Amino acid sequence: MKKGDHLFLVDGSGFIFRAFHALPPLTRKSDGLPVGAVSGFCNMLWKLLTEARDTSVGVTPTHLAVIFDYSSKTFRKDLYDAYKANRSAPPEELIPQFGLIRQATRAFNLPCIETEGFEADDIIATYARQAEALGADVTIVSSDKDLMQLVTDNVHMYDSMKDKQIGIPDVIEKWGVPPEKMIDLQAMTGDSVDNVPGIPGIGPKTAATLLAEYGDLDTLLERATEIKQEKRRQTIIENADKARLSRELVKLRTDVPLELAVADLILEAQDGPKLIGFLKAMQFTSLTRRVAEACECDAGAIDAVDVPVEWGANAHGPDLDVAEPAPVAGGTPEVVGDAVSVPAKVNGSAAPEGSFTPSDFAKSRADAFASLPFDHSRYVTIRDVATLDKWIADARETGVIGFDTETTSLDAMQAELVGFSMAIADNAKSPTGVNIRAVYVPLGHKTGVGDLLGGGMAENQIAMRDALPRLKALLEDQSVLKVAQNLKYDYLLMKRYGVETKNFDDTMLISYVLDAGTGAHGMDPLSEKFLNHKPIAYKDVAGSGKSNISFDLVDIDRATHYAAEDADVTLRLWMVLKPRLAAEKLTTVYERLERPLLPVLAHMEERGITVDRQILSRLSGELAQGAARLEDEIYQLAGERFNIGSPKQLGDILFGKMGLAGGSKTKTGQWSTSASVLEDLAAAGLELPRKIVDWRQLTKLKSTYTDALPGYVHPQTKRVHTSYSLASTTTGRLSSSEPNLQNIPVRTAEGRKIRTAFISTPGHKLISADYSQIELRVLAHVAEIPQLTQAFADGIDIHAMTASEMFGVPVEGMPSEVRRRAKAINFGIIYGISAFGLANQLSIERSEAGDYIKRYFERFPGIRDYMDSTKQQARDKGYVETIFGRRINYPEIRSSNPSVRAFNERAAINAPIQGSAADVIRRAMIKMEPALAEAGLSERVRMLLQVHDELIFEVEDEDVDKAMPIIVSVMENATMPALEMRVPLKVDARAATNWDEAH
DNA sequence: GTCCGACCGTA
DNA sequence: TTACGGTCGGACG
Question: Which residues touch strand C (CB under 7 A)?
Answer without folding.
Answer: A 643, 645-646, 648-649, 703-704, 707-708, 725, 728-731, 733, 735-740, 742-743, 824-825, 827-828, 831-834, 836-838, 840-841, 903, 906-907, 910-911, 914
